Amino acid sequence: MREKLAAMTQTQRRLEETLGAAIASMEASVQSYKGEAEELSKANKNHDEQLKALVHVTSASKIAFTAALGRSAGPFSQETALKYQRILTNIGSGYNSYTGIFTAMVRGVYYFRYTMYNNNFGHPNSVVSLMKNGQMMVSTWDTEGADVHDSASNAAVLQLEVGDNVYVQLYRNRVVYDDSKYYNTFSGFLLFNL
Ligand SMILES: [Ca+2]
User: Fold this and answer.
1) pLDDT means per 10 residues in the chain (194 residues)?
2) Which end of the chain is less congested by CB atoms within 10 angstroms, N or C?
3) Residue 24 C-alpha to ligand 1 middle, in angstroms?
4) Which residue, of 60, 90, 111, is where some domain finishes?
């Protein structure tokens, strides 16, 4: 009888030990799941933030402008950026009508175009270039002949880094004619981000 009782006690102790180990193992699993849940929550939050950043970049990438001169310019004693005063469109506010300069807010490939109109009377005397960071990209020229009322246009696709600037330059001692008909325009827009 005593031996039987001792055996039962031992069995009970083993059961208790087994049960204790099982509970400890379950607790460890629960802790592990909690940790995984926290990691997932963090990952989700991270994805949310990335998504928000992407939406921000996409909305910030809407860049397009057209501005028109509105009055004659020149002759000046030095090369001068034409200040197209009348803004028709300036999505993204990249174009500054006080300086005539477009500044790239995002890295990408852009399209620019300008049209110049030579003097309305007398001898034609217009030379204009599209400039990127002070470097000539493309030009238009009309200084010969007795004809007036001529327009000339040029365009370029340019890869720009953030902070690069683009403007239209009137050369020294040259002129362009404009009035409220707005013959001289400067336009640009972002084709795609890089
Ligand atoms: Ca001409």
Assistant:
1) 78 84 84 84 77 62 96 97 98 97 97 92 91 98 86 97 98 96 98 95
2) N
3) 93
4) 60
